Each structure stands twice: as C-alpha cells, then as structure tokens.
Amino acid sequence: MEFAELIRTGQAQAELLRGPEEPPLRGTLCITGHHLLLSPGPQATPDLWLLLLRNVDSIEKRVAGDSGTITLRCKDLRVLQLDIEGVEATLDIARSIEVLLRAGQPLTGPQKRRCSEDEDLLRAVLAGAQPGARGFIVDTRSPQAAKQARMTGGGTEAKAAYPGWKRLHRPLETGRPLQESFVRLVEACGDLEQSMDRWLNRLESCRWLSHVKETLSTACLAAQSMEQEGACVLVHGAEGTDSTLLITSLAQLILDPLSRTMAGFQELIEREWIQAGHPFQLRCAHSAFSHARPKHEAPTFLLFLDCVWQLGRQFPLSLEFGEGMLLALFDHAYASPFGTFLCNNEKERCLCEVRTRTHSLWSGLSQPKEQRKLRNPLYVPNPLAIWPSAEPQSLRLWQGLFLRGTRPPEPSEVAWEKVWQIVTDQEKTEGSQPTDSASEAGP
Fold it and tell me: How many Å is the Cα radius of gyration of the chain?
C-alpha cells in the first residue's frame, strides 16, 4: 500500500496557530504523502507553510459543533494547533496521518528470502511515527499455518529484518472450515421440530458465533494498538484478501466515525473489499444449500456483515445505517442485478468492462424509496471510538438474517417500523408549519 492511499481528505479550510509571537495563518490545508501544506488566500502573503509529516511526534484531536482542532507536537519541540472547518475533515486528516496497513504474507519461502523494499517500507512507517512507537504485525494465521506456508513460498517476517516490529498471531478460520460452519448454522436454523436444548447444542457446535467473537477480538486488538498505544499496525493473512480485510475494515469502523455513516460505509466496502481484491465471484459462488463444496467458497464477507450487525446492536445510535443495509449487501454479494460485486478483482472488472456495462449497486441503494429500509432513524453522530464487547454473553445470533425465512417479525422489528413512522410524522409536521415570515404576513 502506498502512503498516498492513506489520505482520506485532500484539503480543508483551516487556521494555523504557530505560537504566541506569530499571527494566525488561515487558508487551505492540504495533505500529501510527505507534507502538510497551508496555502493562504490571495489577499495574504503567497508563501506556503509546510510541515514534514515525519516531524510529527504525536497527534491530539478534538471536535466540537461543526469544527475540530488537531494539535501537532513536533520532534523539534514545536506545538502547532490547526483549527479545521468540518468535523469529518478534522477526523479524516488526523486519521490520514496515523497508519493502519494491510498486506499479503511475505514470500520468504524455504530459503528465507528477504525483500529490501518491504523492510524499507516498514522502517519508514516507524520512522514517521512518534519516538519509541512500536509496530505490531497482526498475522491472522496460526504459527503452524504460517510455518507450513513457508514450504510453498510464503512465510512470515524475520524478526532480525524488521526491528521495532512484533508479530502477533491471531488465527482466524477461512475457507472450508468457515463455509462448513455457515452450512451447519443454516441447517440448524431451518429445523423447526427440534427442542430448545438440541437447538442450543447445534448452535454452539456450528461455531459461527465463535468466529464472530475471534474476529471482533482481533479487530479490537488492532484498533486499541493504534488508539491507546500509538502503535503502527500491519495486518496480513495468506493472500491479504480475506481475513486481512475483515480486521482492517472492522478496525476502521471502531475508530472512524465517518466509516459509520451511510456514505462512509459504502466507501469502506468499495475500498477495503472490492478494490482490495476480495474474490467475490469465488467466495460467493454458492451459499449454504448447494451440495457442491468447492474449496474456494467461504462466507468471509458475511462474517464481516455479522460483526457489523453486532456493532450496531451494541451501539444502536452510532451507525447511520441499519440492518436493512447489511441484509441488502448480503443479498447482492451472492446474487445481484448490479455489477458492484461481479468478478474477483479490479483487473477482471476492467477486462469485462463491468463499470461501463453494468449499473452500480450504490446508485440503486441511494434511491429515496430504498433509504427507509437502509437508514437508522435513531442515528446520532458519535465522534468517539466505539469498543464492542466480544464476550460470548454479549453476542447474539443474527436472527434478521439466519431466521428471516422461518419466523414471524420480532417485536423489535415492529418497534423499528413504529420509530420510522414517528420520525416520518415528525418531519411532515415540521414541514407543514408556516415559516416566521409567512406567519407574520397579513391576510
């Protein structure tokens, strides 16, 4: 991943406070892969203000109302304050300076080959962080699996070649085991004749909620390492297109308020799943009812959606989208009239001219008649990180998906519809009230 790919907001209006002896400088703040730049307006001096990103020692961010403040403590002992217009722009710029990376496994092989470019990149990441910052390599494979991968050309990072980086193994199931867990869960949910005890035993034995727990725990580990320890984090698995994307996308949802908006969530999926090369065509060739069991099938994206549903259940006000959005994404990932989830990577989509010969799912979901199904009427913007509990007692079966064909609507779903009705009625009432000018006008 190039550093430029980490930039979320290219520019924003800001005011720079450089110290008590210098006047504030107001203009357009721009961020590049190497510098922060502030360009004053045409009425001021034409000189640019520049700050090398590697000079930033630590970052503090605060938001209030419709603006925010970023305090930069520099390695040369300067303390700079940027007052930025827009909460989203503030958070985007702060996140762009902080680093979360994803990658596939290093190709060390049985001969323990090294890649100087990889080593230089991770060395540069730590050099751009605050002094003493550590780096964590979160490997989503078990130590044994990583060792076996070396025999076929893969492997892990050698400790001596990556000073300052510590490897953490957090094994997550992918491929056949995850698909079999999904199949067993669907079979259990479709059996309406079983007793409650048998149902609970089958639910536990399929281990789907165990996968949810392990995934959320690993995502929290990556997020906490960045947020609370100021560490740099690199996440990888075997190919970097399955469990790797699970963790990086969930970590961003935990930390980044923008990713929890409708538009931000769509951008997250586009960036972290579609453009990053999750092979939807292979992974979602069949769902849970087919007798065919190709080894390349796996409900990795469904596991991501389930984890997001758990986030929404634990933080019902913090996500702008609701269960309807997650159900729609599940349906379209497996079968869709749109082209968004077609093919396995960007190269195949270009060869098939997907973007010019099909319509985008996002344009379909943006239609007004669809928004009521997708949006959360209780949403309140939350600028803080949300820390989910991954304890077994905190996780629930996603009944809205796994039981939607075998049970009547739950009381919660009826209540959800009533909330929407209240919000709609309130909007109609506010829209029908006369304006101040109209109420003051005479007959």
Answer: 24
User: For position 5, what pLDDT does the model report?
Assistant: 46
Q: What digits encode the pLDDT tens for the residues 299-327?
A: 999 999 999 999 999 999 999 999 999 99
Structure tokens at 165: 């980086």
* Chain segment 365-383, per-residue pLDDT in tens: 998 888 878 999 889 988 8
Using CA atoms, how far apart are residues 88 and 315, in angstroms rounded to an integer?
20
Question: Mean pLDDT across the chain, nearest whole number?
Answer: 83
Cβ distance 80 to 16 under 8 Å? yes
Residue 39: half-sphere exposure toward Cβ, Cα within 13 Å: 7
- Take residue 443 and report the two structure tokens written for it: 């007959």
pLDDT grade for 268, boundaries at 50, 70 and 90: very high
pLDDT at position 307: 98
